[in-house]
Design brief:
There is one protein chain. With 1069 residues, the chain is an alpha/beta fold. It is built from 44 helices and 15 strands. The strands form six sheets. The protein has a five-stranded parallel sheet with strand order 4-5-6-3-7, sandwiched between helices. The chain has a two-stranded antiparallel ribbon with strand order 1-2. The protein has a two-stranded antiparallel sheet with strand order 8-9. The C terminus is likely disordered.
């Protein structure tokens, strides 16, 4: 009896393997991709092993009537499988050849020439599998004791592989038999349901670590869903919150007090309370610190488990963060909240995926490109809240509801959704926010805790520990005087922990200058009390507490932080790549007071640990004495394990002490005060920050040598890009220093390139998405480095996000190389002053470089997004045209003028000034003799059926391009990924601004038409017409297309020869 089940199990394994092979190859039969022939050989061996197992079991005797039919099926399937195994083995290439072969060739060997048509053969195998599973195995399972079958000696003697699979079949048959007994439907309906159940039966192949079946496909969908929900910034706020001071917040688990406003203790709510629990408090009271304390404390989970009872428990957290340091708008959005919570739930319990997104787990359901949208996420959360039963009890901890960046009505709607969800018996929701109107209204009847009413002992503990840690404090004050000063600080704080922290910082600095506590008490009383707005406290420190001799240093540090927080919005936004890393660290600030000449003299080489620690200490001392607590270092030596961003433990990042400080510094009166303070001083915050960036680049290296501080692979490119953005502003305020620093940057990068530390353009990163959320570091791993002997300039390695390659991209390696250099790189980055200084020094030789013309680089930059403000500069174009650059010079089939038109077609501008800049570029090109009859042509592919594609030819004249961009204000984006709106009207809402843009376009069109009338049309090179067959395939004679390409190439060469001849005959300016 056992032998019949074993034979059936082995046959199912062969069937599953064969059908899976057919399914996988069916999708790529027309793709022409490559396949590893080592896989073919391995699959052939696996399939042959399965066939041998079937053969060894075919001769076994069995008393069951079904055994004869099983043997017939086994013989037929074995014949097909053995033929496939032989064909698979033939797909392997000889050892002396490459290990890749075209998939078409492999599939041709596999399926062509079999006894039956391949499709018919697979349908036959599917029929046999259905018969085997739905009739024979089910019939046998009714006659046998499946549990006793495992105990037979024959079953024990089976090969481990066969036993493994047979045991899985037995387990499934037990569940199927029970399901059949429970069915009360017609025979036909029952047969369908049995087949659906059997479709989930796993098939197994030797050498594999698991099963490949419908369940595996479901797991793949779950993983894809997690990938779509996840974003790297989710854990960022948790990492940024300081760990609570020792012994603080202990009361929430031991002796929490109740007041009129704090009507329920946390433990009471956990034990019997319904609805959500609201932790409220004014700004700076420590709400986020408490929420992090609850998430991290080992007593929290057992407390939730007591509520969950026998149910499984999952806890999910999310921290809203509306701050420059967040560097991700999703942390202050409803979408971010849903993504963070749902991702965490699904990761801990996969069954939540199908419950919350049931329609997306239906067979044959394709997922939209932008899934999940906010409505998708909102619907998923409602399903979670309304479900009568859940796979597990759910505890949610959500911090900072007031940082949700939305209108009051939208904040109330979110709060109401959370309040309603909290009445589900399966959910416990803990939230925190400031006591704003939206939340006071919605949560008025909820259990609540007013944090500033309950932290008096915590504030006292913190103040006492910090002041008594200052050695001189016990010398100048008795125990009674110490207690009086501590009580004064706690009393004036009015429940604001941030006030206490800043006051303690101020008093600690005054202790060394005091002989008794009278001076210290006066300092405390001068600080605006905690019941005032935080801006009053910040203003007092800025104007009164920073010592006059350190005031310019302190203001410079604060402005540097302001500038650094604007950098993420000026960077290239990557679809899939490393997140932005905050660049202001303690070691960087240690160079803040150095002059440019000192920075240029810093040697290139790794920074040893001793010096790094010393410099980090110096940076901390600077911000302590010059900022009086407004800036702080954060211990982030633990990496952001999801995004791969990591800070050295010797070089902590520096941030504002509180997000409200950014709001205070951006106020008009504060801005004017700081500006007035620097009047008359020869100081540029931009040039100073550029100096610090270039200095830090000198210490870059990857290997963590003994006693040295190592960096990450992407650190060098972050510094390069940040330096380019800062240099745009720096060259305006301090052009002389900027030129020196950029020359030094080039020298540093040339050195790093020469020793192989600059990643190549083809290098990318590998990230194991399955490791997300597991606490395991996933870093970006490059697969190659530039050969430093290949003669390429380091700027050729600047990373490009391939999701944004234009249809007119110059990245085609089959064309003429760019031959980039640093001058071309700075032109692409929009550095006008630097370029002007260099071209005046070098002369016309600067623009006669090989490869891509500088004028083409100035008109359109394929390396970065064209809509990054400042990359297109009319001043650069004007300088190049004055040096006789030719707008009609071609590079890889496109003239400089066509490059400008391409930029026009895809221009994503956020303001009128950007359109003015583009209009000036186009006008200068036309006035310099650009071909007014030039146009753009390109080809796209469109799928017309499952297996057929057709090519679509596109054509736009210069007039159409300018009309669309300026007059009609429509653009065509040449890439599929884009975060900006395609319509200018969606980005520029002012009617006056749109009319001004249209006016610019009309003037440009008048000039273009005038040039067209004055200039004869060049004889066009006619592209061969492409004929289409009925199947949608395009056909054209090879001779015709080759001739056309030859003509294009010839004209390009003629233009280049004329261009170079003209430079040789004219004197250098």
């Amino acid at each position: 009896m056992a032998e019949a089940f074993a034979l059936a199990a082995s046959v199912i394994g062969v069937l599953g393997f064969t059908l899976q092979l057919w399914t996988e190859t069916a999708e790529i039969r027309k793709s022409g991709s490559t396949i590893d022939t080592a896989d073919c050989a391995r699959n052939a061996a696996d399939l042959q092993k399965l066939c041998d197992q079937v053969k060894s079991l075919q001769d076994a005797e069995s008393d069951l009537a079904e055994a004869a039919r099983i043997k017939q099926i086994a013989a037929e399937i074995r014949a097909v499988a053995e033929e496939l195994a032989i064909r698979l083995a033939k797909c392997e290439l000889p050892a002396d050849q490459q290990g890749l072969r075209r998939s078409r060739d492999v599939i041709s060997v596999l399926w062509h020439g079999m006894r039956m048509d391949a499709d018919s053969q697979m349908r036959r195998l599917s029929t046999l599998r259905d018969e085997l599973q739905s009739e024979l195995l089910v019939s046998m399972s009714k006659k046998l004791d499946l549990g006793a079958l495992r105990q037979t000696s024959w079953f024990e003697a089976l090969d481990d592989d066969v036993k493994h699979h047979a045991d899985a079949v037995l387990q499934e048959q037990e569940r199927i038999r029970q399901a059949i007994d429970d069915l009360d439907v017609s025979a036909e309906r029952r047969h369908v349901q049995v087949l659906q159940r059997l479709d989930r039966l796993p098939f197994w192949s030797p050498g594999s670590s698991g099963y490949s079946n419908t369940e595996a496909r479901k797991q793949d969908r779950i993983q894809e869903l997690c990938d779509r929900l996840w974003f790297d910034a989710i854990p960022r706020r948790h990492h940024a919150i300081d760990v609570a001071h020792h012994k603080t917040f202990e009361w929430i688990f031991t002796a929490q007090k109740k007041t009129t406003a704090s009507n329920t203790t946390f433990l009471e709510w956990m034990d019997s309370g319904q609805g959500l629990y609201w932790v409220s408090g004014r700004a700076g009271t420590g709400k986020s610190s408490l929420m992090k304390f609850l998430e991290d404390d080992p007593r929290t989970e057992p407390t939730f488990k007591e509520w969950a009872g026998k149910r499984k428990l999952v806890l999910a957290t999310f921290y809203f963060w509306n701050s420059e340091a967040a560097n991700d708008d999703r942390l202050k959005s409803l979408s971010g909240l849903y993504r963070g919570i749902l991702y965490s739930l699904i990761k801990q319990e996969a069954r939540f995926a199908e419950l919350m997104f049931p329609n997306h787990f239906l067979d044959g359901r394709s997922w939209e490109k932008n899934f999940p949208t906010v409505p998708d996420l909102d619907e998923a959360f409602k399903r979670l809240a309304n479900a009568k039963e859940l796979p597990a009890a759910v505890g949610l901890i959500i911090d900072g509801l007031d940082e949700y960046d939305a209108s009051n009505a939208e904040q109330m709607a979110m709060a109401e959704n959370l309040r309603r969800a909290s009445y589900s018996p399966n959910l416990k929701i803990l939230v925190s926010s400031r006591p704003e109107d939206a939340f006071e209204t919605i949560f008025r009847d909820s259990a609540k805790l007013r944090l500033h009413e309950l932290t008096e002992l915590d504030r006292q503990t913190y103040t006492s520990d910090k002041l008594k840690a200052v050695p001189r404090f016990s010398t100048i004050a008795t125990e009674a005087e110490q207690a009086r000063l501590i009580d004064l600080i706690v009393e004036r704080s009015e429940g604001i922990f941030l006030w206490v922290k800043l006051a303690v910082e101020t008093v600690s600095q005054e202790i060394d200058l005091s002989m008794n506590t009278a001076r210290l008490e006066k300092v405390v009383e001068e600080i605006p009390s905690g019941n005032k707005e935080l801006s009053r406290l910040f203003d007092h420190i800025l104007r009164n507490r920073i010592p006059p001799k350190h005031r310019l240093l302190g203001y410079g540090l604060l402005q540097t932080m302001q500038l650094s927080y604007t950098l993420p919005d000026r960077m290239i936004r990557w679809v899939e790549g490393p997140g932005y890393k905050h660049q202001i660290t303690a070691v960087l600030l240690s160079f803040f007071e150095d002059d440019v000449e000192s920075a240029l003299g810093v040697p290139i080489g790794p920074l040893d640990v001793t010096e790094a620690s010393s410099r980090a200490e110096l940076g901390c001392n600077l911000i302590r004495k010059a900022c009086c607590g407004l800036l702080e270092t954060r211990d982030q030596s633990e990496p952001d394990r999801q995004s791969g961003i990591q800070y050295s433990k010797f070089d902590p990042p520096v941030h504002y002490i509180h997000k409200d400080l950014a709001l205070y510094l951006s106020q008009e009166d504060t801005t004017q005060y700081l500006k007035k303070s620097f009047s008359g001083a020869k100081y540029s915050v931009q040039a100073n920050l550029l100096k610090c960036f270039v200095t830090m680049m000198k210490f870059y290296h990857l290997q963590s040598e003994q006693g040295s501080m190592a960096g990450q692979l992407w650190d060098i490119w972050r510094f390069v890009e940040c330096s380019m953005r800062i240099a745009r502003d720096a060259e305006v305020f301090d052009p002389e220093s900027t030129v020196k620093l950029l020359d030094e940057l080039d020298r540093v990068m040339i050195h790093l390139h020469s020793i192989g530390l600059v990643p190549s353009p083809s290098a990318w990163y590998q990230e194991d998405s399955s490791m997300r959320g597991t606490g395991t570091l996933t870093d970006f791993v490059f697969d190659s480095f530039l050969d430093p002997t290949d003669g390429s300039h380091w700027s050729a390695s600047f990373p490009i996000d391939t999701h944004f390659r234009s249809k007119f991209d110059y990245g085609d390696k089959s064309g003429e190389p760019e031959h980039t250099n640093f001058m071309a790189f700075t032109v692409e980055q929009g550095l006008v002053k630097y370029f002007q200084s260099k071209i005046s020094e070098i002369g016309r030789r600067a623009i006669t470089k090989l490869g891509r013309p500088l004028l083409s680089s100035a008109c359109g930059n394929p390396r970065v997004w064209w809509h990054i403000r400042g990359s297109i500069r009319h001043e650069t174009v004007d300088i190049l045209l004055q040096y006789d650059a030719d707008p009609n010079e071609a590079y890889n089939g496109m003239t400089c003028w066509q490059t400008a038109l391409c930029t026009t077609q895809s221009y994503i501008a956020q303001d009128v000034e950007s359109f003015r800049e583009l209009e000036k570029v186009l006008r200068l090109m036309l006035q310099a003799g650009a071909d007014p009859h030039a146009n753009l042509e390109w080809t796209t592919s469109k799928r017309i059926s499952k297996r057929n594609w057709t090519d679509i030819q596109h054509f736009q004249s210069a007039i159409e391009l300018i009309e669309n961009t300026f007059v009609h204000q429509k653009i065509e984006t040449p890439w599929s990924y884009h975060t900006a709106s395609k319509d200018t009207a969606d980005r520029i809402t002012s009617e006056d601004d749109r009319r001004e843009i249209a006016r610019l376009g009309v003037g440009l069109l008048d000039l273009l038409k005038e040039k067209q009338r004055a200039a004869p049309r060049r004889k066009p090179i006619v592209r061969p017409k492409i004929k289409r067959s009925n199947t949608g395939n395009s056909s054209v004679t090879v001779k015709g297309i080759s001739r056309w390409r030859e003509l294009v190439s010839r004209r390009t060469r003629v233009w280049r020869v004329r261009f170079r001849a003209r430079f040789q005959t004219k004197p250098t300016k």
